[in-house]
Amino acid sequence: MMRFLTTTLIAAFVLVSSAHADDDCDKCRKVVDATYLVCLKKAKNEADKKECDSSRDNQKKVCQVTKCIKSLF
Description:
By secondary structure, this protein is mostly helical.
């Protein structure tokens, strides 16, 4: 289920476009944080929590590459 959620979020990040790269970067990070909190609430054990951490880290990388780096150009 977590991998499906991650894949869905990654697809959403790629499809969403906006005029302001900085806003996109902030929005992306906020979505990652919110998704992480939901994941932690649903976690039933330490393994689930570690998967939440891993998913959050991967999503942050996606934000960095797809939304945040654009603001530098």
